[in-house]
């Protein structure tokens, strides 16, 4: 037993390992375009809380999901988002709504602010989908409900879906497509 411990210690001290070498993971973050001013939108004199989107287990991850064919889900190897997809979506919504300056106050839920309304969302898709060989596109789908906080009454609900083809199969091009798709979705 002592010989086995000494051999193991010698192997680990010389840098030999039976464990596979980990590949570094590249981290990506979608970049939002500057918000578009919408002077025709009415001013709201109430406050809004933006809740973290609800998402399935596959989407509630930092991994970048890819759908190479219908019914098949994978992730890009050695790549991840800077945060998980629901948190990226929440941050993008917050930035877009805050920068629009049409609502008195826009905050995250759970931040100690009481809002008159809440924006509740279901993140249905945040993935790269292949529409054909070598043709990925970024697809983001979100269902949104505006809820009055005092009584839980749903004031409005709507689904949003944006897709943007990537210029090629390189992951950088796919991330750029996500940036454009996310910018358009949050502008809506």
Characterization of the model:
With 188 residues, this protein is α/β, with parallel strands linked by helices. It contains three helices and nine strands. Strands 1, 2, 3, 4, 5, 6, 7, 8 and 9 form a nine-stranded mixed beta sheet that branches. β7 and β8 form a beta hairpin. α2 packs across α3. 22% of the residues are buried.
Describe the secondary structure blueprint for this structure.
Layout: H1 2-13, E1 26-28, E2 44-50, E3 54-55, E4 63-69, E5 72-81, H2 85-100, E6 103-108, E7 117-130, E8 136-148, E9 154-165, H3 171-187
Parallel strand pairs: 1-5, 2-6, 2-7, 3-7, 4-7
Antiparallel strand pairs: 4-5, 7-8, 8-9
Helix pairs in contact: 2-3
Helical content band:
10-25%
> Main sheet, how many strands, which sense, barrel?
9 strands, mixed
Describe the global form: globular
Low-pLDDT stretches are none
Helix and strand pattern: HEEEEEHEEEEH
Structural class: alpha/beta
Q: How many β strands by DSSP?
A: 9
Distance between the termini: 68 Å
- Rounded radius of gyration (Å): 22 Å
Summarize, please.
With 188 residues, the chain is of the alpha/beta class. The protein has helices at residues 2-13, 85-100, 171-187; strands at 26-28, 44-50, 54-55, 63-69, 72-81, 103-108, 117-130, 136-148, 154-165. The protein contains three helices and nine strands, in the order H-E-E-E-E-E-H-E-E-E-E-H.
Give the key terms.
single chain, 188 residues, alpha/beta, 9-stranded mixed sheet, 24% helix
């Amino acid at each position: 037993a002592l010989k086995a411990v000494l051999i193991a210690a010698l192997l680990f001290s010389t840098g030999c390992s039976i464990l596979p070498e980990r590949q570094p993971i590249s981290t990506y973050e979608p970049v939002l375009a500057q918000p578009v001013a919408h002077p025709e939108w009415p001013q709201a004199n109430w406050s809004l809380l933006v809740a973290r989107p609800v998402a399935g287990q596959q989407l509630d991850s930092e991994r970048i999901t890819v759908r190479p064919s219908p019914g098949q889900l994978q992730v890009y190897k050695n790549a991840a988002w800077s945060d998980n997809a629901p948190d990226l979506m929440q941050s993008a919504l917050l930035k877009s709504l805050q920068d629009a300056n049409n609502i008195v106050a826009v905050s995250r839920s759970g931040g100690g602010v009481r809002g008159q309304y809440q924006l509740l969302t279901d993140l249905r898709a945040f993935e790269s989908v292949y529409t054909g060989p070598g043709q990925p596109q970024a697809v983001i789908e979100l269902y949104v409900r505006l809820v009055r906080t005092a009584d839980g009454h749903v004031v409005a609900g709507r689904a949003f879906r944006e897709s943007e083809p990537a210029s090629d199969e390189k992951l950088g091009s796919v991330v750029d497509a996500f940036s454009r798709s996310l910018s358009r979705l949050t502008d809506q």
